[in-house]
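Q: Hi! First time asking for a complex rather than a single chain. Here are the components, and I think there are two in total. Is that enough to go on?
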Amino acid sequence: MGDHGGIEDCIRVSQSIVQWFRFASPQSFYPLAGRMVPWFWAAAAIFGIAGLWMSFFVAPTDAQQGEGYRIIFVHVPASWMSMFIYLVMAFWAGLGLALNTRVSSMMAQALAPTGALMAALSLWTGALWGKPMWGAWWVWDARLTSELILFFLYLGFMALQAAIDDPRRADKAGAILALVGVVNIPIIYFSVKWWNTLHQGSSVNLAKSSMATTMLWGMLLMALAFWMYSIAVALMRVRAIILERERHTEWVKHAVA
Amino acid sequence: MQWHSVGEFFAMGGYALYVWGSFGACALLMVAEPFLARRRLIEVRRSLVRERLADELESQQRTR
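A: Yes, that's all I need. Here is the structure of the assembled complex.
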């Protein structure tokens, strides 16, 4: 009796796994992504409004940096997302390389511009924070330099894919570049520990955070907003990429009918 | 709340350029990017519709 139930469970689980693999086809992922986009926009707006409220009206003035510290509420989320999106992009690119699944490679391609935008915002807000606090817009510090390299990795990934006409070959070349570049992520993350840098160490620590609780909450809400934004915009872009690359298939001709 | 007036809020304790420069750049890029992504989708859809109309026209001429 128990065995029988076990087999049924197995069948049910494998059926649901097969259901998930169905979304690996561009044809079924295209409408699914379209249905998900508005929900991620809504979540981004809610977290964004709550995060901005916390950032400007609840979080107190910093004892050392005055109001200037408020840049943290966009600087840290943008920096986190620039690193996280890279890992996700490399994961999808690698999956596309290993399993030859088209949607994975398209997803990697859709994530790259958003990752580049986050890296650019991280560098820009960092410069605007560095100037009043350190007296310099830019220093060749390990943290800053490795983040700049991350920005160039995104640009390199996009340029490489754009330079190769055959999309499948472009996917493969891009995947190799993305996977090699992953080594930069731990370098950025641990740079403040490994080297003696001007960039301050992490202020977020679960056991003993150096920040006021309201500051920490503001930052986490803003990070969630940036996260939801990234998913929404990447899903919008992947829909365009799917149509562009599948334009000669029958389903696309029917989809736009 | 630490602000006593709207002017004090916008002055950001003397850090207005840096704080608003950061938040402003984020707002600008995070409005522009979805706009561009949306336009890309609309454009590819439009070209697909044009392609289909051209195909239909061609097949109509052939049957005539």
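A: Residues 6-63 of chain B form one domain. Let me know if you'd like any chain examined more closely.
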